[in-house]
Every structure is written in C-alpha cells, then in structure tokens.
C-alpha cells in the first residue's frame, strides 16, 4: 500500500512539472494564467494528500480493511516515534505514541510502548503511570509487569518489585525473559534458593523456546535480563547482571559491549569507552564496538545540541569510528549511525559524502529524516529537482514535519528564480510551504544544521523576491530562539530591511537598535547608528539628535546599550 501511494504521488508531481515547467511554456502568459497554474498546482497537491491518506481507504475498503487502516496508522505512528527517538526528540516521540493509545486505549502493548519511551526520556513517574495503565488493561501483560519490577528495584522498593516479578512468571510460566529477570532480582536480594528455582524454571522454558530457524535458543539469563534492563534505563541492574555473567563464564565481547551500552546511555563516556576498548581487544573486528565508540564521542562533544549559530564541535573521533565500522567487513550498519554521520558531514560541508550516506540509510530504512537530510545535501549541491523529489518522499512519510516544509520553501524559491526572472507558481508554492513550516513550529533547532538556519535562508530568499511579509515572519520566528550573537545580528539586519520596505518604522528602529548593540566592529555600529538617525528623523527629532551626537562623539563600545 505504501509503495503504491508513493508511486502515485510521485507520478502526479512529475506530470505537473512536465506540463507547467517546460522552458518557454509560460512565456508571455498573463498574470491571471500564471495564477491559475499556481492554484491548480496547489489544489492537485492537496487533493493527492487527501485521497491517499483519507478518501482512498474509506471508499475502497470495507469493515475488515478499516481494521487494517487502523493498524496502518498505529504502525506509522510507531515508526515516527522511533524516528523521533533517534533524533533524541522524546517529546515528539511521546506525541506519536500518545496518538496510538488514544486510538486504542484498551491495548496494553501500546501503553507499554509509550512507557518504555517515557522511561528513556527520564520521566520515571509518568512511565510508571503508563505501565500501571497497561496492567490495568491486561493484568497478564508480562513486559509491563517486568518493567514495573525493574523500576521498583531501582527505587529500592524490593517488596513491591518481588510482587511484580512473581506476577510476571505466574502470568506466563514459560516466559524465558520473565524467569531471567526473576533470576537477576533474586541474585540482587541474595535469595539463593529462589534464584536456583528460578534458574531451573528458566532453563526448562529455554529448552522449549525456538528461534526463527527452529533451533533451541540458549542464552545466559543475565544477558537476557540485561538487554531488557537497558531498555528500561537501569544501568545498576545491567552492572549486576554482567558481574554475575563474568563470574559464571568469564569475559566476552558481548559482556563488554553490553556494559559499554549501559554507560553510554548513562552518559559516562570514559567508562563506556573503557569497556568498548576491552571488547575490541577481545575481537578486533567488533564493528558494533566501533559504532558505539563513535556514538560516545558524538554525544560527549554535544553534537545533538549543535545549531547553525554555534561553533562547530570536534568531530574527527566520531567520524573515524563511524567510518571504520562501515568499512570493516562485515560492516555494522544501523540507521542511527548513518543519521549521525550525515549530520556531521553536512555540518562540515562534505556534501557528496553526506548524500551518499543518506542514500544508504534510505535503502536500509526510509524515513522522513533521511529524505530531509538528502534534500539538504542536494540543495547544497544546487540539484533542486532531485531535492524536490526527496522532499516529496519525506512528506509522504511525515507530512507534519516542519523542517521538511521549510526546505520545500527554500527549494521552491531556488526554482522560482532559476531562469533569472521570477516563476510565480513556484514562489506561491514557497509561500504555502513556509506557512506550513511556521504553523508546524519550525524553529532554530534543526536535524541537519548548516551555516544558516532554514528560516534564515528562506527569509533572505523571500526578501530578494520582494515577499517582505513572508521574509519578516521567517526572521521573527528565527529570532525567537536564536542564541548566537552573530546570527541574531544578521537576522535583525535582514528584519530591518524588511520593515523598511513594509514602512513598519517602530519595528525597523528596534531592529537597527539591536544591530548597534550586537555590532562587533565599529563599522557595523556606525551603520546601525546612521540607520537609526534616518529612521527617527520623522518620529522624534530629539531622539535622532541623540544618535547624531553619539556618532560625533565616536563612543562605540562593543555590547553597550543604545538609547
């Protein structure tokens, strides 16, 4: 179904381009004709979205398929939540998972999925509420009972934890993970008799468990339980489990990697790398360890917090480990690694490499994030038609992504002036796209930061084609969250130009005043003061005189407030 929708939308978009974008096809047409084409383009796109995501299932599918449509929605929201978590946007991930429980409030698994993400975001109290709701809906939901048990153990509420572990194995006596967690819990409590009983039950259950190949799966209870504890964010229990594993069978690559993951999750980067180095000593080609080493440097250098108005963080160590993990055979390939590597490559302007990295990521698992990154790379290469196609794919996967709409505006603006003139339908498309971006909450925190914010790029281009209102809206939104003084200076300078064109004198004066206060050179300060002199001449001659006196006295001091 998804492939059909993607092909249909791409085909219609291609037809529009072929019909209305051929060189000379619009030459000499009246403004009314150009507006008609622009409106047709907008209506067609809106109708495609509506038909694909609403009308098509409703008209063609019956009651059984309505259930399928619901499942499709649940799966899509889960995918978008996973994508948001990859970008460490736990708020957005929670929104997507909340939509699932609102749609099907009596599904314990959906409450468990929400609780798991909330745990990893650090909100333990809210996570407990989610797990409590899950076991209220289904008292035999093993994963939620185990999650409760682990959270109670972490909080030293051992009697309550004991109750939940017992309920879990009682609800599913053949559940290997349940018995594995019980073994770990009794070991923590030094309850040897109960530990041995649980271990025996786990072995019995494990003999009956088969993997997809039909073979019996044999794994240590400590390794099994530690993986679940990792999902619940319990470093303490992972440490205990791996200590017991070390005593039982000795050191191993898997043991060291598990500990490395736990300390990475807990942001103990030095301890993380110590265990990953140990794993690499045990297995020189441990590409998983290389990837995790890359993640440790990426997180330690605060790459998730990097923005266009910040200095570039150190990147060589993270890039080196990511490259090594991908180039050692067999390589370790994961979506998170591709996204983070591409983020660095775009920031340091290795554009061709970024485009290739994101292409591999898309081939592995298509996502709006990966298509957005590829569109940004293609835009930086001035390949606007392919960037537009990438953004269309991104919209299919997530039509509420504000960054995607922001980049759609930028690409449309580039296309609108490609022939030296102004192609109005594309300019109109850019206006609609930036409005969608602003409505969707586009700000200055971006998935793939470049040297300028998406809002700033769009504002400058709107300014060039005389769309001053749209430019001002973009600049103001960027100013609402920009942090770097240089970026704030440039945004105010551009906003002042917009306000001049719009004859918005008060806003123009305020923008010039901020430029003067943020100026880092005497020339910039003098330019701001001269602009203030001119701007205040008609409104307040006394104020204009004050600025004139400042200029004559030559009293510039960086950062000093202006009257």
UniProtKB/TrEMBL annotation:
The keyword Cell division is assigned to this record: no
Keywords per UniProt: Repeat, TPR repeat
Alphabetized Pfam families for the sequence: TPR_16 (PF13432), TPR_8 (PF13181)
Keyword Repeat annotated: yes
A GO cellular component entry from the record: extracellular exosome
SUPFAM superfamilies: TPR-like
Gene Ontology biological process: cilium assembly; cilium movement
TPR repeats: 108-141, 142-175, 253-286, 368-401
Protein name listed in UniProt: Uncharacterized protein
Protein's organism: Hemiselmis andersenii
């Amino acid at each position: 179904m998804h492939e059909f929708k993607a092909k249909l939308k791409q085909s219609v978009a291609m037809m529009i381009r072929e019909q209305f974008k051929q060189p000379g096809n619009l030459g000499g047409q009246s403004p009314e004709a150009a507006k008609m084409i622009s409106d047709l383009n907008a209506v067609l796109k809106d109708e495609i979205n509506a038909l694909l995501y609403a009308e098509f299932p409703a008209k063609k599918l019956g009651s059984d398929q309505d259930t399928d449509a619901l499942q499709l929605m649940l799966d899509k929201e889960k995918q978008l939540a996973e994508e948001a978590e990859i970008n460490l946007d736990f708020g957005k991930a929670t929104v997507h998972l909340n939509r699932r429980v609102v749609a099907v409030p009596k599904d314990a698994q959906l409450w468990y999925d929400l609780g798991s993400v909330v745990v990893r975001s650090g909100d333990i109290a809210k996570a407990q509420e989610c797990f409590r709701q899950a076991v209220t809906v289904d008292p035999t939901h093993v994963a939620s009972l185990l999650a409760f048990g682990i959270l109670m153990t972490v909080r030293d509420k051992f009697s309550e934890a004991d109750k939940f572990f017992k309920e879990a194995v009682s609800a599913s006596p053949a559940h290997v993970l349940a018995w594995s967690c019980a073994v770990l819990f009794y070991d923590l409590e030094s309850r040897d008799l109960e530990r041995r009983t649980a271990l025996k039950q786990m072995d019995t259950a494990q003999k009956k468990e088969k993997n997809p190949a039909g073979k019996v799966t044999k794994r240590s209870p400590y390794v099994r339980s530690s993986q679940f504890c990792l999902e619940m964010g319990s470093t303490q229990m992972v440490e205990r489990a791996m200590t017991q594993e070390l005593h039982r069978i000795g050191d191993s690559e898997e043991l060291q990697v598990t500990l490395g993951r736990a300390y990475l999750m807990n942001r103990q980067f030095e301890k993380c790398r110590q265990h990953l180095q140990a794993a690499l000593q045990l297995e020189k080609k441990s590409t998983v360890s290389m990837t995790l080493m890359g993640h440790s440097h990426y997180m330690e250098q605060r790459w998730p917090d990097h923005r266009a108005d910040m200095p570039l963080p150190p990147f060589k160590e993270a890039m080196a480990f990511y490259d090594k993990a991908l180039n050692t055979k067999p390589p370790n390939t994961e979506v998170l690694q591709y996204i983070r590597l591409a983020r660095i490559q775009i920031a340091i302007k290795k554009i061709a490499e970024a485009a290739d990295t994101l292409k591999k990521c898309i081939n592995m698992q298509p996502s709006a994030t990966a298509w957005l990154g590829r569109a940004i790379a293609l835009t930086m290469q001035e390949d606007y038609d392919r960037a537009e196609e990438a953004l269309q794919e991104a919209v299919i996967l997530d039509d509420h992504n504000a960054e995607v709409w922001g980049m759609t505006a930028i690409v449309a603006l580039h296309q609108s002036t490609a022939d030296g003139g102004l192609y109005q339908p594309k300019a109109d498309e850019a206006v609609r796209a930036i409005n969608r971006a602003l409505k969707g909450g586009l700000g200055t925190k971006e998935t793939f930061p470049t040297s300028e914010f998406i809002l700033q790029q769009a504002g400058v281009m709107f300014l060039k084609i005389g769309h001053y209102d749209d430019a001002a809206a973009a600049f103001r939104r960027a100013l609402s969250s920009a942090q770097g003084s240089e970026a704030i200076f440039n945004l105010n300078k551009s906003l002042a130009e917009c306000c001049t064109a719009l004859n918005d004198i008060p806003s123009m004066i305020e923008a010039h005043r901020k430029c003067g206060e943020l100026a880092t050179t005497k020339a910039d300060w003098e330019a701001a003061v001269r602009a203030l002199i001119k701007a205040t001449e008609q409104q307040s001659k006394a104020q204009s005189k004050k600025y004139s006196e400042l200029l004559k006295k030559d009293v510039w001091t960086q950062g000093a407030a202006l009257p």
